[in-house]
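Handout, section 4.2: multi-component inputs.
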Amino acid sequence: MQKQQTNLSAETDQQSRPGAPRLILASSSPARKKLLEDAGLTFSVMVSDVDEEAALAQAQEEAYAAGLGQITPAQTAQLLAKAKARAVAALPEASGALVLGCDSVFELDGQPYGKPGSADKALERITAMSGRSGQLHTGHWLVDTRPGSVQAAEASSLRTASVHFDQFSPQEAAAYVATGEPLWVAGSFTLDGFGAAFIKGIEGEYHTVVGLSVHALRGMLAELGLSITDLWKTSH
Amino acid sequence: MQKQQTNLSAETDQQSRPGAPRLILASSSPARKKLLEDAGLTFSVMVSDVDEEAALAQAQEEAYAAGLGQITPAQTAQLLAKAKARAVAALPEASGALVLGCDSVFELDGQPYGKPGSADKALERITAMSGRSGQLHTGHWLVDTRPGSVQAAEASSLRTASVHFDQFSPQEAAAYVATGEPLWVAGSFTLDGFGAAFIKGIEGEYHTVVGLSVHALRGMLAELGLSITDLWKTSH
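Output:
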């Protein structure tokens, strides 16, 4: 897992509704940004340094101390979503906003798979996935820093979807890796890109597989007394 | 069902691989176009006049004559995909290309639902769908007009996905209709837009629900002796 760069950027091309709360996506993933845009939401992107390895190591230590054993891939997704959201929520620039953190972990045979990072590793993993099924876990953590909101009001949601891969030939696997697309995504595959050709189907939510469930966001907003329709941009 | 306008347009912003077959999408749907673009395919869009009502009436007559009874929503999707693909394949401009026709029909309680076309009708249907599940049928028909290909080589694929809707409030339903988005889509809902917030999950393919299964296209191309990777653009 790699450290994320500090990166502050504000979207200005979207028109928000008057009086609508401000939403910040605490993730640098282009797929999550695109997904929120497609779903018609007004938001900005703000990413903060999170030492993911340190966060997980501390959580694992606490889990062992509590007699909970090894942290699962699903718990890992949720823990990192929380770490990302809280890191951005602590920034002065995020004051008064809703901050959404997300993290996705792919699970095959009980093992977690993150971004492969190299072509060799991606090819190896894709070959192992051919004709099989895995789970995509996406953790969501929403921090409410609006004035007047309950101190540290937070909501969270963990979503899991099963992904069924078709069998693919060595030529197809090599061509897919050559696109570069699978190298930097959890589980070495994309549902929203070239990889679409190789997915037989899913059980669960498309958006969970891509990395951010809009349905989960609607539920978390409702827990905080908000409607997702208030965050819709006025023109699509 | 409405007649479609004749509309010829060629995409020029995508780079195709040398020697790759030319793919034409015989559909005016922006969602299908976006989906193929996201999946990294090189293609152009060409739409021809199809009298959908006449095509269905004739098919229904033949079905009755053959003792098959009422045409199902799934059969309707497949018949219209065929009609669209063949109409474009017959145009001189499509000569030498692969022509893909698609059509989607939403089924709830055994009844087919097309585009609502008005806000009142959309609201009525959305209210009826709250908390329930329906099926989205997408028919695919691929016509191969390349020189040297078998006379009238064709491949087809029918895909069905179940869609589970969350319950939504009258306020949410009204806000969704006010976006205008559900008025012109099969079944009055979008998975790739504002509607994402209200879908609990699907069983099947995301792409089937949006209106074009890239996985089905890969299978049809394989039937014609082609690999989908040959249609991938060289840069994403």
